[in-house]
Specification:
The chain is an alpha/beta fold and 252 residues long. The protein has a single domain, classed as Metal-dependent hydrolases (TIM Barrel). 45% of the residues lie in helices and 14% in strands. Strands 1-2-3-4-5-6-7-8 form an eight-stranded parallel β-sheet. The longest helix is centred in the middle third of the chain and has 21 residues. The chain is globular and about 45 Å long. It starts with a strand and ends with a helix. Bound molecules: zinc ion. Zinc ion binds next to loops.
């Protein structure tokens, strides 16, 4: 199993945890970053656990737009550490924080997302994208200008028509443990072909329903896979294999 989206830098006792996760069948994790500081942390972890971690650098969109000096630092970091970096993320467009942003800041976010897409093209890297609800369509429109860039829409929530267009464009979509207790996510999983579906925990983000009070770790992937087996049919091992190969396909 591969966790296709986790904030690994936010966990303590990493060494013990990775040991345990490996014993429980977690092959790798796709480690995203939220800003410059966490990008450096993720790359440090990548050096410590090169085979276990697929590392990305990026700036989470649910905050103020990034400062221009930091954009330059990111660009230099990507050039200098290119060998450690497998993707840009997470990046995208704000939704939950939209009402906290001025019109100018919202415009700047759109410009900056285009900038990340350009870098992804230049460096031949995929993108881990946060763009939910009304913002998914806008992110897709920007991506369509550079169709050679592959993207993973993580924890997607979007209107049916937009999901279909994301699938038609060949991008990947992931589900979280929410799929175990939320109808919206179950409907999404039904719509996405198994060849474009990824599984993630977005850990250490915590969940409700049966996971209330449970710490979020990649071990929850088992629950997601069991639910997917129910939704998609077919043997458990096939669902595991397919989601692993999808993750490796985009995050090479
Ligand atoms: Zn995330």
């Amino acid at each position: 199993m591969i966790d296709s989206h986790i904030h690994l830098y936010q966990y303590d006792n990493i060494e013990k945890r990775i040991d345990r996760w490996k014993k429980e069948g977690i092959e790798k994790v796709v480690a995203v970053s939220n800003d410059l500081k966490s990008s450096y942390e993720t790359l440090k972890l990548k050096q410590q656990y090169p085979d276990f971690i697929i590392a990305g650098v990026g700036y989470h969109p649910e905050q103020l737009p990034i400062k221009s000096s930091e954009i330059i630092e990111f660009k230099n970091l990507i050039k200098s550490e290119r060998k450690l970096i497998s993707f840009i993320g997470e990046v995208g467009l704000p939704y939950y924080h939209l009402d906290k942003l001025t019109d100018d800041e919202q415009r700047l976010h759109i410009e900056q997302f285009s900038y990340w897409v350009d870098i992804a093209k230049e460096e031949k890297l995929p993108l881990a994208i946060h763009a939910v609800h009304s913002q998914a369509e806008q992110a897709l429109t920007i991506l369509k200008q550079l169709p050679e860039v592959q993207a993973h829409f993580h924890w997607l929530k979007a209107p049916e028509q937009v999901v279909k267009r994301i699938v038609a464009a060949g991008h990947f979509i992931s589900v979280t443990p929410e799929i175990c207790y939320r109808e919206r996510d179950q409907k999404l999983a039904k719509m996405v072909p198994i060849t474009q579906l990824l599984i993630e925990t977005d850990g250490p983000w915590s969940y409700n329903g049966p996971f209330e009070g449970t710490e979020t770790t990649p071990l929850l992937l088992n629950d997601i896979l069991n639910k997917l087996k129910e939704i998609k049919g077919g043997p458990f091992s096939q669902i595991v294999q397919q989601t692993v190969s999808n993750t490796k396909k985009i995050y090479r």
